[in-house]
Amino acid sequence: MKAFLLLLFALAVMVCTGGPLRGQEKAAAAADVALPVGKIAYVTSENFGRSGNIFLMAGNVRTMTLAHQTRDLEFVDGGRSILYSANDPEAKGIHLYDLTLHTNTRLLPRNDEADSPALSPDGKRIAFVQGGESGSQIMTAALDGTDLKQVTDGPGFNWTPRWSPDGRRLLFETTRNEPPGGGEAGGHRDLYVMDADGSHLTNLTEGSYGHNASWSPDGKFIAYMKYGDIFTMKSDGSEKKNISKAKTRDSEPAWSPDGQWIAFTRTPEGRNAMDIWIMKSDGTQQRPITFNTGTTTSYSPSWGKE
User: I need a labelling partner for 215 at 20 to 30 A (CA). Which of 10, 73, 243, 289 fits?
Assistant: First the structure.
């Protein structure tokens, strides 16, 4: 009976989603867009920055999951689960959503303030952000919250940790080099890489700028945002290239599992609506996969396997 009731609830959620979310699904279906490979999970909400529901797109079909509301996510477990930081009043903290069982499992118990989680490739540790209005640090811990370690220090904000595909390094963004009074585009942010224990810290964007970084599946390249465009560079910080070259605001790049495509968030000039777009890893074949209107926004894409 419990399984039957869960199935009925899932169908109700997918069929009865009202307002702009349902309008988005109709527009996408009419455009007959389809993913070239794998599946993409993303968040849709009213106005950017607010928590929203997690949607899943595979081929040209999309559904709203039964995960709690969030602002960020990533595929883990070979694309079978989604790791995210829940922002529902009744469900704070880090959760793992199983795409087969449609269940949410709480990780890092007794830590409601953990944010921006990333799971190590071996599935044994979580990197996450801990902090407040004056600054934040990158932490790592076992899934049950034990063996807690702080791997960054110093002033400023340290955000969005991302494990390298081999699990040996962590990529993150920081404001530690921001000049007094801030910098251009809302503050100077750099991308750093370090060993998983916090040692061998290297600035990949010294004298430049970096935000919302993502490793390529083979670990050889990094995609990131700089002043509203998507750039790529080698994992040592060399050969930086602007690949999106758009007169818009592009952010949050996420590589496809085969490394041939990049999903990203685009805010059209003069509009509030944000959409998920995809492009080849060289910046060609750019096209949207969501079609929002008004103040509806889709963001935080993650690309997983079938």
Answer: 289
